[in-house]
Amino acid sequence: MLTVVVIVVLTVFAGRLVYVQALAGPAIAAEAQAKRLLSVDLIGTRGQILDRDGVALATSVERYDVSVNQLLVREYRGDGTAQDPDGALGVARKLAVLLDMDAAELGGELVGDREFKYVRKGVLPQVAREVFALRLPGINVDKVADRVYPNGALAGNLIGFVNSNGQGLDGLELSLDDRLKGTPGYEVYEGGRKGQQVPGGHVEESPARTGDSVTLTIDADIQWKAQSLLDAQVEATGSKSGSVVVYDVETGEVLALADSGATDPNHPGDSAGGSLSSSVSDIFEPGSTGKVITMAAVLEEGLVTPTDEWTVPYTYEVPNGQVFKDSHEHGTLHLTTTGVLAESSNTGTVQIGAKLSVDQRYDWLKRFGFGTRTGIDVAGESAGRLNEPDLNDPRSQWAVLFGQSVSVTALQATQVFATVANGGVRVQPHVVKGWTDASGTFTAQDPAPRTRIISEKTADTLMTMMESVVDDGTGSNAAIPGYRVAGKTGTAQNWVDGKQGITASFIGVVPADEPRLAVSVILHNPRSSEYGGVVAAPVFRDVASYALSELGIAPSGTRAHLFPTTW
User: Where are the membrane-spanning stretches (predicted)?
Assistant: First the structure.
């Protein structure tokens, strides 16, 4: 009987063994392996934003988020002392020191029925390692990539910022998000009791991919100088706001795009404004800087010469009965075409512009880019405002000749001068110089599109005329020792926050004999003076002087031979 019992038991055991090993073996092995598998998410680091010299304007750094499973914290057992009690308070006592938090307040955060709750975000790696070493139940430490902006508000309104998940929300962070963002990955492996990888065990992985890094045309030093000088002048003049654009006329590269009150991307919520660059989004009437287009048009059409003579009164009535006047009272002046531009005379400009038909006036504004976007690779660019000619509007058809009844951005206004300086060829402005992929390979951006607007002869003539503005006209405060400067002042009535205000500006080119830079300074509603030659030209001088030195551009090697301004 004992033999029979033993044989039966062994038969059952053998059958069970065959079932477990042969029939159900693969499924059981798979179930066991699944319990040993650990999954780790791999972060796809976001690419950097660099200035033209490789200075980091935005970068991602290694940080850690500490979270809690409140259901597991209850299982903590201390050593029985008052300093190490059981449960949430015991965990809080150990964790608070590392996280620099109050133990009682932290204990309150750990109590509840939630399986996931953040305790502290953005913890430094060293602190994260110390927290992990405590092996506290329910306390998790997860690696994240935190976005930081080392230079604070420098170019903040251009760069933009990201949300807590690293997704671009504004500025270049938004418009270039598809290439900047990395691709996350994962790793699955067999782990031991303490999470260590089992040698030779199952491993499955999908590597994370780092996003491409973008190199900008922006020069961080020139951007800083433009920003600091602009902010100082806005405060000194009581201006509502302002902007500075520094533009390489040969390549279309924007070296600086500064706006007053720039946002610090590290703390975007602290800013009263948005992060869009007002240099490309806000529009205003350019005023007398727009006279450059009128002069370009009549020269290109062969209707006048730089030395034609004009009798210029303080007020002037056009054929349809509209009366225009200059910025200040004066007797009758005897000015050449160059003198009209140098003295920024509205009445003289209207007489000269009368040689253009109404359609020609608007056509030339369109040719120079008014009413259309420049195509710069910055989010939120405005096209400005240029209405179609309206013969029922008796004033606008004349006012456009001296920069009124049309609205532009600071970048559009600067582009006009850059076009003239570049021999009459417009180069599309851009801020992206090239991209570097995860392997370190740099690929330059395609050359910017180029369009001829006026002949080289007209451009050279107009440049000489604009030198008179600085040498013997309203822009004398823009003069830079050792360099020939061409430019134009501007003063225009504008609406600022729903109230009538003034926009004062100066836009210039340097060196005038071998043009490299176009620089604009725009101030909205200055209180100390309404004239661009007084409040904007000095800022142009200081910004341009710094940029010339920074870029190593040699002083002018020739003397100017200017046209007469009077007769």
Answer: none
526 within 8 A of 322, measured Cβ to Cβ: no
- Contact between 223 and 52 under an 8 Å Cβ cutoff? The reply is no
**Would you give the DSSP letter of residue 248?**
E
Tokens of 377: 């690779």
What DSSP designation does 270 have?
G
Which of the listed ranges 37-41, 154-158, 377-381, 485-489 does the model predict with the highest average pLDDT? 485-489
Whether the pLDDT of residue 457 is over 60: the answer is: yes
Residue whose tokens read 């780790």: 40
Share of the chain above pLDDT 90, in %: 64
Nearest to 282 by CA among 540, 496, 539: 496
Q: Where are the domains of the chain?
A: 42-216, 220-262+277-551
What is the pLDDT, as a whole number, of residue 356? 97
State the pLDDT at residue 193. 62
Q: What is the CATH number of domain 220-262+277-551?
A: 3.40.710.10
Q: Which of 239, 237, 238, 257 is nearest to 247 (CA)?
A: 257
What is the pTM (predicted TM-score) of this model? 0.84
Q: How far apart, in whole angstroms, are the C-alpha atoms of residue 277 and residue 281?
A: 6
Burial readout 352-387 (b: 16 or more C-beta within 10 A, e: otherwise): bbbebeeebbbebbebbbbbeebebbbbbbbbbebe
Q: Is 252 left (phi over 0), alpha (psi -120 to 50) or beta?
A: left
pLDDT at 199: 79
How many whole angstroms separate alpha carbon 111 and alpha carbon 86?
Answer: 12
- Residues with Cβ within 8 Å of 218's Cβ and at least 6 positions away in sequence, in order, are 51, 52, 57, 155, 158, 254, 255, 256, 257, 431
Longest dimension (CA), the chain: 140
DSSP designation for 276: S
Give whole-number Cα distances, 182 to 129, 178, 207, 545, in Å.
25, 9, 11, 40
**CATH architecture assignment, domain 42-216:** Alpha-Beta Complex (3.90)
Distance CA 46, CA 60 (A): 6
Length of the chain (residues): 567
207 φ/ψ angles, rounded to the nearest 5 degrees: -60, 145
- Rounded Cα distance between 503 and 286, Å, is 8
| Spatial CA neighbour of 86 closest among 96, 71, 73, 76 | 76
For residues 421 and 418, give the distance between their C-alpha atoms in angstroms, rounded to a whole number: 5
Phi-psi region of 287 (alpha: psi -120 to 50; beta: other; left: phi over 0): left
Angle formed at CA 324 by CA 318 and CA 329, multiple of 5 degrees: 135
Burial bucket for residue 553 (CB in 10 Å: 0-12, 13-18, 19+): middle
The dihedral formed by the CA atoms of 481, 482, 485 and 489, expressed in degrees to the nearest 10: 0
Query: Quick check: 450 and 444 in contact, CB under 8 A?
Result: no
